[in-house]
Each structure stands twice: as C-alpha cells, then as structure tokens.
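Hey, can you fold this one?
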Amino acid sequence: SSALLARFLKMAGPKAPIYIPDRMKEGYGPNAAALTKLANDGARLIITVDCGTQAHAALEAGGEAGADIIVCDHHLPSDTLPRAFAIINPNRREDTSGLGQLCAAGVAFLLAVAVNRALRQAGWYSASRPEPDLMALVPLVALGTVADVVPLTGPNRALVLSGLKVMRERPVAGLQALMAVAGLQGAVTPYHLGFILGPRVNAGGRVGDCGLGAELLSTDDPGRASALALQLDQFNKERQAIEALILEDALSMAQALDQAGRQVLVIAKEGWHEGVVGIVASRVKERFGKPAVVIGLEGGYGKGSARSVSGADIGSAMTRAREAGLLLAGGGHAMAAGLTVRPDMVEALADFLEQDLGAAAADSQDTLQLEVDGALSGEGLSPSLAVSLAAAGPFGSGNPEPVFVIPDQALTFVKPVGDGHVRFTARGIGEGRLGGIAFRA
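Sure. Predicted structure:
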C-alpha cells in the first residue's frame, strides 16, 4: 500500500517518503512519537495505510503537532472514529460502497484513482506533466490482495486477474528481482504471490529491516531491486528457521487445547519471536480448522497475531476484548487480527474469546473434513481439463481451488523428498500410472 501510493505520487508530480514503523520497537500501526516527529520535521500531510482506524491517541498527537492525517485502511472500526482530516475505509459503519472485502492495497488504489481524477479535472496534467498510467500500479494491488488473504471474489478477483496480466506485460522491477532470487520462471500465479513473493516482501519487517519491502516495491532501478531482493531472501530464510522452532511447540500446545474441546486456540510462550507469530497462527489454524491466537511474551508484554476461519470474525472479537479491558491494543478484520496483552491476562483473554467466538467457530465451514467437488477417473486427468478449470480462477481465499477425488487407486511408490514433502505413484484398475507430490505431508 505504501509503495503503491508513493509510486502514484511520484508519477503525478510530488515525491513522498515512506515511513514504516519498526514492529519490534514501535508496534503495529501509527504511534504518537512517530507522527509527532514527522510533523515536527515538516510533514503537513501524512497518509496512514493499512492502519489508523483505531489509532485515536496517535492521530490526535500528529494532528496537534500540525499535520493533516488521512487514514487509508480496511480494518474494522470501533464505535467511534479517531479525529483525522479524512478516514477512507470501506468498513466504516455508514459506508454503503459494498467494498468492505478490499485489502488496504485495494483501498489505496481507489484513493489514487480518485485523486488522479481530481487532478485531471483541475488541469494539473499537461504535455510536460503527463497523466500517469494507473494500470502500472495494479500488480501491487494483486500482491496485497492475495497476501492479505481477502476473498478472491468480485472486485478482488478482477484486480488480481488484471494485476497478473499487467505483470506479464510490464514487469515491476522489485517483483522481477524477487522472482529471480526465488527461482521462479514463467507466468506468476496467485500461489506465487501468496507463498513465494509475499513472504519475502514481508520478511524484512518480521526479522530484519522493516523498510526493505516497501523500498523494493518502490524502486525502478533493477540493480537496487536485485540487491534488496537478495537481502529479503536471506531474511526469509532466517524467518523460516525461527518459524520452524516455534511451530513445533505451538502445534503441541494447540493439540492439547483441541483435545480439551476448545474452539478457539490461544497459545502463548516466553521468547516466541513476534515477527513470526502471524505465520505460526496461520499454520495452527490450518492444522486444526479453528481460530488460532499465537502470542510471544517478552519484557512484561505479549504481542500476538490471530487467524480465523470463515464465519468467525476475529477482528470484531478482538475489538470487544479490548473494550472489555483485556487487551492493551488490538483489532483487525474478519480473518486476521493483532494484539498486545499483559501476560497475566492471557488466560482471561482465552476464556473471553472462547465465550465470544466459540459457537461461531464450531459452526464454521472450515472443518477438518475434506469437501470435494467431484470424482475423476485417472484417465480423466488431462492438460485440457486443467486449462478449463484455471478459467475459474484465480483461486484463493473465498474461491478455493476445486478438489477432486480419484477413487480405486493403490499407491505403488512413496518417497519423502525435500522439506517434509512426499512424492508418490498410484495405479488404478485397468488404468495407467499417476504421479504426484503431497506437500508438507
């Protein structure tokens, strides 16, 4: 979102610096000290992206220091909105746009579209200052949409399809560099955005330099992009190593809660790196099919992330928990949230979420049962079928890939490969062999 608006402003005329808070030192979102310093350093307009809807005190401080603040966000608001020059959020309670499923990058893109139209009507553009081509920004919208796991339906589906098309025709330097270090060739898919490129963009903020991802997506210099991509790839490897250590503990603790009948899995431990708790929460949620809250405790505070299942609005639940005095800070959207909590309140938070969200979680469609879309024979599998199915994509949250069962198959070969994957061969009655791989099996 930051890179998108910075790119737009650069194309339209003014250049705007990007400030990414250090999540380890400053936490998530706007903070009073940072906004005050930016204003004191001369900033007269500050745009917060993907944050700010609940940052009452921070926005108040920035405004008192002399800055106009525009909030460009998609997170769920509380009962009252903070004081700001403008709050652009399709999830405002009085909003009637029907665009509440947009991610922050989608909201930022619509802001750029609206500002561009206003500049055109005001006669800002000329032969010496041509109007920017906003389609060049759509790949960043696609990346943000997939990485933020918002439903790939309606406008989001259109934005991702357009973004993938533009990426093929007009590559973004930063994304091209990331593809190179990741060994990706050919057309980019939503899978690549969500599981290959997105984690590398975010790795700097999790375990390294928080500003690298935004700089990578903002630069047009291929050399600088390559250097940044290499740094982020290394940070991603460090993130994976830290995640693996925490995940083993987290799954064991979550299994005990699951066996005890808990519908919301809240786990916390001293020393867990706050930069990876969101990823671990996603893994726990996927394994048990239940909302998961993973909290790292350190220095008298607990900082955590939550991931939820369809029908169990974790963002609203966190807002209610904060309003009930259980959290120092917290909020998010339906499928994901962040929080800060005192260690002595973790148990009370777990009980609150179980009471508040447990019934919805139990009724969720995201169970451990495998729902299939149909049955196929081994002979029915073909490249033409894959092409036909791909036309229903892009697949992801809200529009999952179709799942088929191939009955009456016997495994004839099984071999572990890579990091926890299994390669196999199967044969059906009167049919040829099928080869496949099961990831993280």
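Residues 261-363 form a domain with the Diaminopimelate Epimerase; Chain A, domain 1 fold (CATH 3.10.310.30). Let me know if you want another pass with a different chain boundary.
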